[in-house]
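Appendix C reproduces, verbatim, an entry submitted by the partner laboratory led by Prof. M.T., so that reviewers can inspect both the input and the predicted structure.
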Amino acid sequence: MHQATYSSSKMSSKPQSGSVLQEYLPVPTTKTIFKEELSENNDETQCGIGRFKPKWLQKFANPKVYLINFCLLGFTQGAHFTYLIGILSTIEKRFLFESKITGLILIADNLSPIFTSFLIGHFGGSGHRPRWVAAGMLITALSCFVSASPYFFFGTGVHLLDQSDISINKTSSQLCEVTENECANLKLSSTIPAVSLFFTGSFLLGFGSMAYYSIGTPYLDDNVAKKDSPLYFAISFALRLFGPALGFLLSSACLRLYENPTYDPGFGTKDPRWIGAWWLGFLILGFALVLFSIPISLFPRRLPGKTKSGKVKKARIDHVLSEENKAFKEKLKELPDALLRLIKNPILIFHTLGSNFRCIAMLGFYVSMPRYVESQFRQSASSASFYSGTMSIFTMLIGILGGGAVIRKCKPRPKYLTGYMLSVEVFGMLGLLASMFIGCPSLNLAGSTISGNGIQLENSCNSHCGCTTRVFNPVCGPDGVSNYFSPCFAGCTGKIEEGMSVGFTNCSCIVNENEQFYEADVTSKYCSFECGSFVFYVVVLCIGKMVSSTARVGNTLVTLRCVDTKDKSLTLGSIEAFLCLFAFIPYPLIYGIIVDSSCLVWEETCGETGNCWVYDSEKFRYSLHGTSLAFLILSIIFDFLVFLLSSRLKNFYSDDGKDSQTDEVQEELTTGRLGGSTTISLNSIPASL
């Protein structure tokens, strides 16, 4: 009975003009379109390598899983850079080279992208992008192992130890006594080879970071709906920020261990002679990168099921397939035209120039921060890495997540978004300006005089002692205020040890209030140091960084939305090359010169200069912050030009060429093509994340 009724009803249902059913049946769903268009290319959307494409693995082919793997790689890759920053002062001390040499090491990872980023961005954008990213990360892992290798080649540094059984350190306690010339034995042969290995490791790092950013980011953007891109980018940036935080934490933890963790040097981490286990973190990061590179290589060329209109999806698929079928020579011929399109894009040019000056200011500042905190606030290398890096990065994490969430929910027009980005950059600049006036008194080295070349430690009392600046072993005078560079410069001839306490006796060059010399005993340590501004300094910087970081998601959206979809990878590759040439290479050299110009006492062995022991605190503070402020002002000028041109930006949050919250199929369902009576609530559409 029911079956007959159903059949009769079905047979009597004739097509009617204006019928909802008639209009609805021909309308394909996004899922149907996707299956039909990719039925012959489903290998392109399956996880695996070669014939290894099991069914259980296919459930991981979605943007959320890719985001997690992408962030894990970025997490580890980002830790490499900040780890290197955290140990810079230690490896300078260990291998005796200046900050200028450190600058050369830091620019090495930006030399490799200059000549290859255009090609990788152009060809990698149409290749198997996840495998390009995985290959780049394996090269980054290799760079970690190369950077750790100087320890295994040259062993533990002994030139700062005070051990009678080490022949090259017979006078490392630096007592006031006549000694024979030991230059032939003291000169370290490991400096140049070690610097070469650090340079090579940094050079290899450039390949991995370039592939990760210029190929991995567009892959993520192409596989999520535009309206969800801000949230995906916010999560990506925020989770990747844990990487730099991990780098600083890892450097802090490793530097608490002595270079040879099984050996006790007889002094603590705050002693200038302390050399931490700088090499250990490189090994940890290298093995982690190898581990995380395997899952990313299993992702397909394209992820199935992206929520977007059928027409746009088909256009994207056709474009990618045509790009993959082109010959190498054809793609190469298209490169000049593609580059010309980018050069003629004023928003992209001004935005890139603003980013360039901002990178110089902030990277130069944060690379110098651990060394600055060590000298300005007299913190250990381990503490400097923790406070100057980790705390500020966690505040950036809050800012990026908050900024991305607000952009996704409010979807501000480009004019409002770029205006906000300009405002927060100004706020960050004011925070940096305020921090320039927060500092501590300079280190008081008694018995010394200031000269044009720094501090003159030698005086009429200790001139016969044969003192050197090879080892910085500060001692505190009997007044508890006056520091001396070493027992030798204090005129000490005897040494006493009581447990962990070390003292020196018969010190004839102690200076009284009347600048006269007298004899007394001293203690091997810094004098008490009272300065309560360190916490305030960190708080001011963190607040400024948190507010300015809310613009980071907006910066990325402007970059990706001001160019054609087909030019995304090339754009990021081109920006990478530009920043490498005009930001990442200059900033270590600029700030290296600034840091070195603030040095008062250099390590010197047999006439050869090594690392800096003592800085002019006031000069260091003003030159470091002032230089960063100058570059930030230049970046704000170009940000203002982007703001003026922002009305040209289109399709900021939609996939179909209209800045609406509906895609093309959704629009067909809501514009009366279903008989005019059916509407779909926007809230019923599930977000991609």
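The mean pLDDT is 76. Additional entries are available on request from the coordinating office.
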